[in-house]
# Entry
Amino acid sequence: MSIISKYKILSQAKDSFSKAEYKSALEKFAEVLQSFPNSKEAFNGVILSEMAMSGEEGAEALFDYYEVLKEDDKEQADLIMSEILATLDGSLDKLSEVFSEPLRERLEFEDGILYRDFKKLLDDGSEFRETFENIMFSTRVIITKKDDFVDFLDKLIENNFTEMALTYLENALSVYPADRPLRNLLKKLIKGDVVEN
# Structure
């Protein structure tokens, strides 16, 4: 696929999404991602299309928000949307319906350590703060389940990473403002049970 057809197909995908033709949008975003696996726009488009097809609330609003962000700064918009989508439940698992296993594994492991593997390190007796700081400087933690995200935020709060926890919470609550576990974490953070080092 040439660069020209990449942008043409991305344009068609966005047009399909805007017309609520989510299956068509998904197929077109996936087609771009097959040829350009590092395309954040196609990656985010696949997840948003899958969310919309599943009837998940907020997919259309997120798509519109993404389009508005791209008008100001496309690269920053891709990063912001990737972070928001990474907090949502099962986003990488949804990709398995679209891509072959080798590509899915590459997407998972090129970008960081999965949270389940991070938890194994902690279960083996590693200290959260030290382990997280070591990982933070070399890679990132990939979270694909909401329960893991809540657990991760709780550990951040307990280990005095309050500013980072607050940033994640603000992003997540902008998408799911009524989510009880997230609101409980925010209350815990606001209570000042912990003090930033």
About this structure: The beta strands are 113-114, 141-142. The longest helix spans residues 3-18. The longest strand covers residues 113-114. Residues 89-110 have pLDDT under 50 and may be disordered.
